[in-house]
Design brief:
Structural class: alpha/beta
Bound molecules: nicotinamide-adenine-dinucleotide
Number of strands: 23
Shape: globular
CATH class of the largest domain: Alpha Beta
Oligomer: single chain
CATH architecture of the largest domain: 3-Layer(aba) Sandwich
Strand content: 15-25%
Number of domains: 2
CATH topology of the largest domain: Aldehyde Dehydrogenase, Chain A, domain 1
């Protein structure tokens, strides 16, 4: 059993004040594999105080290029530990190791990218007149509360921690109670990299106690949240009294559009892998596959065939394509949507069952495909967060765009066509924060990421990401200092 039984607050590893020790479950066996400390409200208060003191202290005064140097150290230590981090992430979340290695292997590039942004926050000069000068500068917003989900704890922490530190903020990271182990590993790496005490604090905890306290805390200036829309709405209410700033990265129900003129092999490779990646527990995946009618039957057949080729198995096994759900409630949710899809009249052409036999103890489910789906069905409208592909036929560009945009969500979308004009026309009418053309799930540190509509507020990554962690200060200076007495005569 691994032990993560101390919170990381103010540079010290501390037992929870009013939290608890829980067992983290290995989702491939349903057995506990680690003991994990969760913090309560008092622990959040301590962490916020440590972050506030660090913000007021040396971190605030440190030149940006020095902060950048610390982030580079962190990036390099992280790179060296990436294989180990990937194994722990897989153990905790159940994601197949071949996927986790690729994911975690890239995080050091993100930290390098944020390091490169740290000393590039420039202001503007604004002309007024000869004797009055105005300029703006970007200043760090203060203490940031980062709340991360269970499906991708290290990646989502990387985006938030990297940006906050580059901007000069300090941070309290509250990972999900389901998958907190790797956030403690991140704290250990940050400590070794020379991140000053209190700049990063890690307090996993339950949403309703630790999470809510962080959102309500008057000394937390901003919450950067990745998770569900239900939680985001709760946070808006909890943050109202303190007028909290928010960045929200929420759910998705992406349209992955395949036109009849597409490179069909590539499109099917992308569409099948994007439907089942991480057992369907990724916000960016393409769960609505829109297929032009002339090729619809071929694509349906290809999905049926590929579903049978996916090796579902133990996540630490290199041969495994797809691991289990990260926790039991998610498995139950996915299976309930299989029933919903059937009841709505969609045709289940592959999967749909929990896996029995050697994998019966874990939260494994078969890669699942529904054909004959209409966009009005719940399996096409609601985020399932399971490996469930919904294949929807369409006729022509206009209908593809209409179906793609007929969604509450707008995080990502993809389209496949060999017609350059169509690629441009369609991509520019899709209501989504990220549109891939003849590509899918290509996410880089340098490209802004975030959603339209119910998929969120704001963007992470790219050169603009820092702005969400900064305030703009406008300074207006008079060269003469003259100020007439308005009450004279
Ligand atoms: P969730 O909203 O249930 O939980 C996310 C985090 O919020 C957890 O740390 C949880 O403890 C915390 N939380 C819950 N209630 C809270 C409250 N009242 N106050 C403060 N914190 C609270 O989401 P989840 O089930 O962990 O994650 C799945 C969701 O995340 C999906 O909707 C998925 O699409 C979304 N997601 C989005 C992205 C993206 O980049 N857009 C990435 C990954 C996941």
């Amino acid at each position: 059993m691994a032990h993560y039984d101390r919170l990381f607050i103010g540079g010290e590893w501390q037992a929870p004040q009013d939290g608890e020790l829980i067992e983290s479950i290995d989702p491939s066996t349903a057995e506990p594999w680690a003991e994990v400390a969760l913090g309560g409200p008092a622990d959040i208060d301590l962490a916020v105080a440590a972050a506030r003191d660090a913000f007021a202290g040396p971190w605030r005064k440190m030149p940006a290029w020095e902060r950048a140097g610390i982030l580079r150290n962190l990036a390099e230590l992280y790179r060296a530990e990436a294989p180990r981090l990937a194994e722990i992430e897989t153990r905790d979340c159940g994601r197949a190791i071949r996927e986790t290695r690729m994911d975690v292997g890239a995080h050091s590039q993100w930290y390098h990218w944020f390091a490169s942004l740290a000393d590039k926050s420039e202001g503007r000069t604004i002309p007024i007149d000869e004797s009055v000068h105005a300029f703006t500068s970007k200043v760090p917003i203060g203490v940031v509360g980062a709340v991360t989900p269970w499906n991708a704890p290290l990646l989502t922490a990387c985006w938030k921690v990297g940006t906050a530190l580059a901007a000069g903020c300090t941070i309290v990271l509250k990972p999900s109670e389901f998958t907190a182990a790797t956030s403690f590993e991140l704290a250990r790496i940050a400590e070794a990299a020379g991140v000053p005490r209190g700049v990063i604090n890690v307090v996993p905890g339950r949403g309703a106690s630790a999470g809510a306290r962080l959102v309500r805390h008057p000394e937390v200036a901003k919450i950067s949240f990745t998770g569900s829309g239900v939680t985001a709405r709760r946070m808006l209410l909890d943050g109202a009294d303190t007028l909290k700033r928010f960045t929200f990265e929420l759910g998705g129900k992406a349209a992955h559009i395949i036109f009849a003129d597409a490179d069909l092999e590539a499109a099917i490779n992308a569409a099948t892998s994007s439907a089942w990646v991480h057992c369907g527990q990724a916000c960016a995946l393409g769960s609505r596959i829109l297929v032009e009618r002339p090729i619809y039957d071929r694509v349906v057949e290809a999905f049926r065939e590929r579903a049978g080729q996916v090796r579902v198995g133990m996540p630490l096994d290199d041969a495994t394509h797809m691991g289990p759900h990260a926790h039991e409630q998610q498995l139950i949710k996915t299976l309930s949507y299989v029933d919903i899809g059937r009841a709505e009249g969609a045709e289940l052409i592959a999967g749909g069952r929990r896996i029995e036999g050697a994998l019966a103890r874990g939260y494994f489910v078969e890669p699942t495909v529904f054909a004959g789906v209409s966009n009005a069905m719940r399996v096409a409208r609601e985020e399932i967060f399971g490996p469930v592909a919904a294949l929807i036929p369409f006729d022509g560009e206009e209908e593809a765009i209409a179906i793609a945009n007929d969604s509450d969500f707008g995080l990502t979308a993809g389209l496949w066509t060999r017609d350059v004009g169509r690629a441009l026309r369609v991509s520019q009418r899709i209501e989504a924060g990220m549109v891939w053309v003849n590509a899918y799930r290509y996410i880089r540190w340098s490209t802004p990421y975030g959603g339209f509509k119910l998929s969120g507020w704001g963007r992470e990554n790219g050169t603009d990401a820092l702005e969400a962690y900064q305030e703009t200060r406008t300074t207006i200076m008079s060269a003469t200092g003259a100020f007439a007495n308005p009450y004279a005569a």
